[in-house]
């Protein structure tokens, strides 16, 4: 067969001179020093990468993207995809690269490819990715006769190491690119031989007949990187230093074997359309469809093209299940291969992961090993551990993978933001390769390859924090890999209102790119301000139309719940909302609001009110805006002899305690609580309980917060039908605290609330509460004469008023002054975010990826990247350990050894359970005073983790603060007296 011929035979059949054949046969692509001790020839690596791309086409790339590549290549999408993936490293055929390893350079020099003095400093070396663009560009222009096509293809080669340079960077130092007939012939031969080997007649035959849009180019670039990284794994692609052994057929066999051993696969592949339009809801998710769920599903069926759906429905309406059903429909109709569900926090990601796991199993039980949980504390999720780490299942049904006790399975460098080994040649951090953990290539199991740095979104199905979506809209290295993971999926963003003005810049940027890539997006919210809905629609449509300034006024919804749809069809952009009123699954009920004046961080009146609220039975949820306030209220109740169930939930609990306590609250207050629901219970929580926390309280006590967030908290009240309640709690009641009357009647707020939310949004919320509860006085107010709120009917109106232009505060509250301060701060935050957005506004309409990484961020770690997409003071995570006689112990008492040594993964698990995030005020002190324990140096999960070592009395001084950890209260911080 043609492809069974070695590259040497192929070169000779092409009529190349013997000296050219000899020279090309000596060019190396992977040095023995970095490739498991075996040199790999350049043509071998190019063909390996092309072969991996062929397998990816068959088993991974979505139907939708295959269609697009077929369109731009004139029906030869598979071969063209293999070519563009494999050609990426052609720039290694230049002196700057071939001279980098003296042992590898010797046979190249002996064959007659010589060079003079080259820059020795790493920072000044001529990079092979840019060299490849310099080598290809003039040939593409000349042989394709199409500057436009050449213009979007060369950045794919130049950017395969994570950053797209401008055209001005294509200027090699003297001698670095290679001059003279010998080099020119060899470079030409590398391109021509590779091109012929993958099935094209010559380079002119490769010319595309159309262009990918810029977002599609970004996705393609990510797939090129993926193919390159797989083909660069020496454990699966052993080096070949004899060109007579290099052929495309042998590369294909290597690629297929590697794919099987790595257990890589796509998701649905060609997902069939459901016969019954409601089947994705009824059979797949087992729900009796509510009107709002039917509305979303019908919209998903009726959209003529991939688009944006904005779903606004009350808390507890079943939005998420409806979104999953819509995702199935959109994937089947438009050829998508999976789903990414973005959640606002790590805590909300865990229960969603379990829900998506159950949903994915309904398609194929084996697909569960393709569902990733993307956040830094996933090791504490029992289901993730069972599937990805071979741990016992939470339901006791065996374990989730075939490899019993997989060595190092929990020692992966989670979100290690690195690259492949050759990046180290250019002063780039090198990522670790995942250990080969597969004993049986035929057995089903998770693909550990996806767990290493930047690859999580490439899994077919993923659930994680919204940060992962936002990261794909940042100007950071290897952003293309993240975007490629989104481009073949349906993207669902839950609680989309939770993104603040800073994060919203990245969300809007992501929507533009997703719109241009034709990725369906479903946004979910119960409390979305109309202006945000409009902005999201405009952003998506600007991507569809490829221009920065698009405004399609969104019609007012006919009712609430509602669905807004935006898409492009026949060259025009369409935005429309539900034109009929869709009833909620439950009737609106009056919620009585009462003021509980209190601005003391100790919260003594709040504790007393909670005790009184459940004196005759019931479950109270207390949500406050500050950890120290939550701790103080808990302490007050505990010391006061509260005789019911008492729980404290906040962000300064260590990971293990937080996970256990969250699960316990869901068990006692969740939809399946039943007889487990306590007779008397109080849960004191911070904003963790604000959203995506499916609990049902009889009474709510909450600090004042912006109106949309206040309504989210009210969504935890009387949430589930059929919950048994004491007679005193048949009507839902909310006590609003965290505010007190000030001079001239203007409210005073907790300092922490003002710092977090700003005064303007609190004043607006206070005005709306005053309308419902009566004036804020020094005494508890509210009663039968107060109007209250009708929930959920009043929700959209309240949110619209809270964020509208009309003044709503009583005279004398200085609303205008607070507004000006708030606006100034918001503008500053928007401007700050613009520094890191993937594309500058004036460059949005540019047709190629050239120069995309202007002044790019060099964020190298998860925490650094989080700082890019989340505004605020930086904070760090630490692992709490206790000093003990002769060594250290973990937070649970696990013995660690004299220097903190960790012997195995089980001990690592227990130790990492003590992870906690410090407040921003301790960040500088932590950086100056804390370090990993010496015994952690050999443990990937621990070697970079800061240890918060508490002395034998359980405390330590950190900066100016006395820090301790209490098993119930969590991290306790006390300012030292001076």
Task: Outline the structure in words.
It is a single chain. The chain contains 32 helices and 27 strands. 55% of the residues are buried. Helix content is 37%, strand content 13%. It folds into four domains: 261 residues, Hypothetical protein af1432 (Orthogonal Bundle); 222 residues, P-loop containing nucleotide triphosphate hydrolases (Rossmann fold, 3-Layer(aba) Sandwich); 211 residues, 3-Layer(aba) Sandwich (Rossmann fold); 99 residues, no CATH class. An eight-stranded mixed beta sheet has the order 5-6-4-7-8-3-9-10, sandwiched between helices. The termini are far apart. Strand 9 and strand 10 form a beta hairpin. Helix 8 packs antiparallel against helix 9, helix 9 crosses helix 11 and helix 27 crosses helix 29. The protein has 978 residues and is of the alpha/beta class. In the N-terminal section; belongs to the CRISPR-associated nuclease Cas3-HD family. This is CRISPR-associated helicase Cas3.
Tally of structural domains: 4
Adjacency order of strands in the biggest sheet: 5-6-4-7-8-3-9-10
Query: Which fold name fills CATH's third level, the topology of the largest domain?
Result: Hypothetical protein af1432
The low-confidence runs, each spanning 5 or more residues with pLDDT under 50, are: 398-443
Q: What's the β-strand tally?
A: 27
CATH C-level label of the largest domain: Mainly Alpha
CATH architecture of the largest domain: Orthogonal Bundle
First-residue to last-residue Cα separation: 84 Å
Summarize model confidence as the mean pLDDT.
89
Summarize the amount of helix as a percent range.
Answer: 25-40%
**Radius of gyration, rounded?**
30 Å
Percentage of residues in strands: 5-15%
Protein name: CRISPR-associated helicase Cas3
Pfam families: Cas3-like_C_2, Cas3_C, Cas3_HD
InterPro entries: Cas3-like_dom (IPR054712), Cas3_C (IPR041372), CRISPR-assoc_Cas3_HD (IPR006483), CRISPR-assoc_Cas3_HD_sf (IPR038257), Helicase_ATP-bd (IPR014001), Helicase_Cas3_CRISPR-ass_core (IPR006474), P-loop_NTPase (IPR027417)
Keywords: Antiviral defense, ATP-binding, Helicase, Hydrolase, Metal-binding, Nuclease, Nucleotide-binding
